[in-house]
């Protein structure tokens, strides 16, 4: 099974990019973030014609998440992150696909920092930690994939001082990510590439893509039984260079 996560940065605006990648990469499961589309605007028919069924939580502007599955319908188990009924931002969706529970997440950016958006980022991630701990106790094959909007370590960002006040690299943010790993989750890409610098995001500004001034923001965390079946993975870097590309690229793994 090949599972990918991809912040598409506007699914309808970049639908042709998404379709081309799906045809080339042929993932079995895809977690999409930043749909920037309402439920009614989600291109379910076009995706079905490409061989993918989907569940989604749509939202305009900056949010929205979806899980695609090739050849079978994902079984929706959750459409929001528990812990705060007042939170209406579409940032989490969960579904079962071929015996694996898939959690697709789009964590808050948190900028400007400090401020209310950073506080929301920390609170949201605390709720993710609580839910992840509950899932871990179920002892199921689980993958939590998405745009975590956290740079886990200094080596996960290009050499720069311009991000020193950015929410993505703050000690509080990184500590929350480490707490997830301490629960037992395996960071699949770092496991597969323990000594390599790998990026999944290049901002549109300041020639960051041509300069390879990237960040690793997109992660796939695996429960114990899935981690034991991890075989290979990577990032589809060339997607970033296509016309009209998202500022993120797909990150993917294959499991037995």
From TrEMBL:
- Give the cofactor binding note: Probably binds two magnesium or manganese ions per subunit.
Which positions does UniProt annotate for Mg(2+) binding?
7, 34, 147, 149, 247-248
- Name the InterPro entries for this protein: AP_endonuc_1, AP_endonuclease_F1_BS, AP_endonuclease_F1_CS, Endo/exonu/phosph_ase_sf, Endo/exonuclease/phosphatase, ExoIII-like
Endonuclease/exonuclease/phosphatase domain ranges (all copies): 4-248
> Which CDD domains does UniProt cross-reference here?
ExoIII-like_AP-endo (cd09086)
TM ranges: none
Pfam families in the record: Exo_endo_phos
What's an example of a GO molecular-function annotation for this chain?
double-stranded DNA 3'-5' DNA exonuclease activity
Q: Which GO terms describe its biological process?
A: DNA repair
List the protein's name.
Answer: Exodeoxyribonuclease III
Keywords, in A-Z order: Hydrolase, Magnesium, Manganese, Metal-binding
List the residues marked with site Interaction with DNA substrate: 248
Q: Which PROSITE patterns match?
A: AP_NUCLEASE_F1_1 (PS00726), AP_NUCLEASE_F1_3 (PS00728), AP_NUCLEASE_F1_4 (PS51435)
Family per similarity comment = Belongs to the DNA repair enzymes AP/ExoA family.
Q: Determine the domain of life of the protein's source.
A: Bacteria
Instruction: List the residue(s) that the UniProt entry marks as the site Transition state stabilizer.
Output: 149
- Residues annotated as the enzyme's active site: 106, 147 (proton donor/acceptor), 248 (proton acceptor)
Per its UniProt record, the required cofactor names are: Mn(2+); Mg(2+)
Q: Which organism is it from?
A: Devosia pacifica
Q: Where along the sequence does the record put site: Important for catalytic activity?
A: 218
């Amino acid at each position: 099974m090949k599972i990918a996560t991809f912040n598409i940065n506007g699914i309808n605006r970049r639908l042709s990019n998404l379709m081309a990648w799906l045809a080339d990469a042929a993932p079995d499961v895809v977690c999409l973030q930043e749909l920037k589309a309402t439920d009614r605007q989600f291109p379910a028919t076009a995706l079905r014609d490409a061989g993918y069924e989907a569940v989604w939580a749509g939202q305009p502007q900056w949010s929205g998440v979806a899980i695609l599955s090739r050849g079978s319908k994902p079984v929706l188990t959750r459409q929001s992150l528990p812990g705060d009924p007042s939170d209406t931002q579409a940032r989490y969706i969960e579904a079962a696909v071929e015996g694996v529970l898939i959690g697709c997440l789009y964590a808050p950016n948190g900028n400007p920092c400090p401020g209310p958006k950073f506080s929301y980022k920390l609170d949201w991630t605390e709720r993710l930690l609580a839910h992840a701990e509950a899932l871990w106790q179920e002892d199921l094959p689980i993958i939590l994939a998405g745009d975590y909007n956290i740079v886990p370590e200094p080596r996960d960002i290009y050499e720069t001082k311009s991000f020193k006040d950015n929410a993505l690299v703050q000690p509080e943010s990184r500590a929350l990510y480490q707490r997830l790993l301490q629960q037992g989750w395996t960071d699949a890409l770092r496991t597969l590439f323990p000594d390599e610098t790998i990026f999944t995001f290049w901002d549109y500004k300041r020639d960051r893509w041509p300069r390879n001034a990237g960040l690793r923001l997109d992660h796939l965390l695996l429960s114990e039984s899935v981690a034991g079946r991890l075989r290979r993975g990577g990032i589809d870097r060339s997607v970033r260079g296509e016309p009209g590309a998202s500022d993120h690229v797909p990150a993917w793994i294959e499991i037995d």
